[in-house]
Amino acid sequence: LPRLVREFVAQNNTSQIKHVIQILSQEFALSQHPHSRKGGLIGLAACSIALGKDSGLYLKELIEPVLTCFNDADSRLRYYACEALYNIVKVARGSVLPHFNVLFDGLSKLAADPDPNVKSGSELLDRLLKDIVTESNQFDLVGFIPLLRERIYSNNQYARQFIISWILVLESVPDINLLDYLPEILDGLFQILGDNSKEIRKMCEVALGEFLKEIKKNPSSVKFAEMANILVIHCQAADDLIQLTAMCWMREFIQLAGRVMLPYSSGILTAVLPCLSYDDRKKNIKEVANVCNQSLMKLVIPEDDEMDEAKQSMTLPAEPTSEESLSKPDAASSSDRGTSELDVTAPNQLLSFLCSSERIQVTLNLDGIVQVLDCHLHDTSIGMMTRIAVLKWLYHLYIKTPRKMFRHTDSLFPILLRTLSDESDEVILKDLEVLAEIASSPAGQTEGHGPSDGSDARPSLVELHVPARASQLTSSGTKGLECSPSTPTMNSYFYKFMINLLKRFSSERKLLETRGAFIIRQLCLLLNAENIFHSMADILLREEDLKFASTMVHTLNTILLTSSELFQLRNQLKDLKTPESRNLFCCLYRSWCHNPVTTVSLCFLTQNYKHAYDLIQKFGDLEVTVDFLTEVDKLVQLIECPIFTYLRLQLLDVKNNPYLIKALYGLLMLLPQSSAFQLLSHRLQCVPNPELMQTTDSTKASASFKRTAASNIDYTELLQHFEKVQNKHLEARHQRTGRAEQLDRRVVL
Q1: Residue 385 placed within a domain
Q2: CA 20 to 30 Å from 446, out of 22, 365, 647, 748?
Q3: Is-contact 21 65, C-beta < 8 A?
Q4: pTM for the full model?
Q5: Of 419, 444, 469, which residue constitutes the final position of a domain?
Q6: What is stated as this protein's family in its record (predicted)?
Q7: Do residues 669 and 632 make contact, with C-beta atoms less than 8 angstroms apart?
Q8: What percent of the chain has pLDDT over 70?
Q9: Which residue range forms the structural domain that includes residue 417?
């Protein structure tokens, strides 16, 4: 047969050569008899060897019958087919490349063959084909990619091993740029990474590692946007290796691509945020996720807040699919293996902001981000670190994009208030920072961004005090403070926040008992303490639940008298030198009347000793309960604290402070023989010259100078208000007692 073929070649008798190949194919290789098929395969191989370099002209006729035998049920026949194809390819070398896809398809099937001899033969053929591809510069990568994309989803271990080995070979060929087609195969690679075989997983790791090295070397040619959603999907994988690898890729993508990744932020956050609460068993994933989170957060810039307005002011040609192209990146569906590339060069779709250098043209999809953050806050099963990260994101967005964020404030407000009941102090602190920023941001004063419910609108009679230092700032100085929650500028959400906070304390008494003081103290650091006390006092003045009002006033009073955060406010109230301080005192006093003892302590703080004495005289008309005596006991303890050092020193000046001594003696007379009685009694025994306690006209004259600054305060009206409030409390107690007695009678009946 070889001699006959060589003669035909020498004679250039093409028709006879084709006739010989046809007979070998049809009558032998494709025969029903197994021995004939074996002979046909041997004959085709011999024919190819005889043709030599001319075999390339007849490759289609030579290869097709051999590949058909790859599917033969007889393993011996499959082996002969493998051997025949090896000889054909060895002779033809580079000429087989136009038929590479059918050869690859056939080899991928033999790679999973159950017969070891067939598998061994296919490996020899595979190595030969790889050598040919490596040597050649005519490989058709574009035509091969669809087949590779299809075969990469095979579940067979050997087929997967075969695929990965080819990807590694193609990656190593300098003339073949597989990176351009990485979006086509990346999803399949991550699926192979989850294979049960350690060897295959290792091979896949190596392949992905090589791709990542190439990406770092040539980031400008990488299609980041097309692969973003693929990474988002695999960052949520149950397999630790897949998740860690995908997260590492995501970290590099965010750092290399920058703002190109912003349209995919909602998907990235969905994948990254839960990882932040992983324990030490998944420490590596947690650390990489944290870097991803921080890097993504840095991509949000103040210009993102102005993008919509700037877009509207520009006259751009119509783009029929511009909205669709911007909304697609955020759809992270697991069924999508390929995503459309974000066109970062289209001037009609995206707006470019220029600072010192040209920025990447992208649009921040804030709605999608807020939706993800909101979902995570509502999910009670998420860990503490994830909740903290969510709140940091919200705070960051309110700082960088306040105008856009205030569109979402009404929907976020309820969950932010509920988060105050969280078990973690760190979560509550971050939550308070967000709420404080909402309450103080100048963006909240923009028309249309106010509270949605009219009932929460701040009454016109309440004036919140803004310190002069804030209003006197220059425009440049104010700009720097606008992002700070400590800026004492209050917006329409401030009063709404105070109302809802008090409602929450009213409905959750445990929260008030365990975290109430902590929350209010932190708010006094984040916001203006005077505004907080002024607004809360005004709200409590109209509180219908008198028992809660009394408890809340007691809590606020304790904070006012003992917290280091309120040192400045105490000093302001101590002297009542300014109209603002006197206004604040009157506002606090009216609410403090819900609790008689706290009212006296406020008078002590503001050095209104005569009025304190007048109040104590009214205590005889009140119902003296155990709770009442307990509060008097606590007040005596407070008098011995550093806060009231100035008061104790004024006891030395008996001549000018007779009402102070009288007020303290009044408290002493209220107390039973207890440790507090002994404490106050010993203190009063230290007062010098007790016979000078008698109030004379001269004494009144000498004492009057201390209150000249507060002469415009109508203490008579304040005293009447105190009596009115206490009468309400008395009626409420009688009603509660009556209801309790009725209930007891029903139980007896």
Answers
A1: yes
A2: 365
A3: no
A4: 0.80
A5: 444
A6: Belongs to the VAC14 family.
A7: no
A8: 82
A9: 366-444
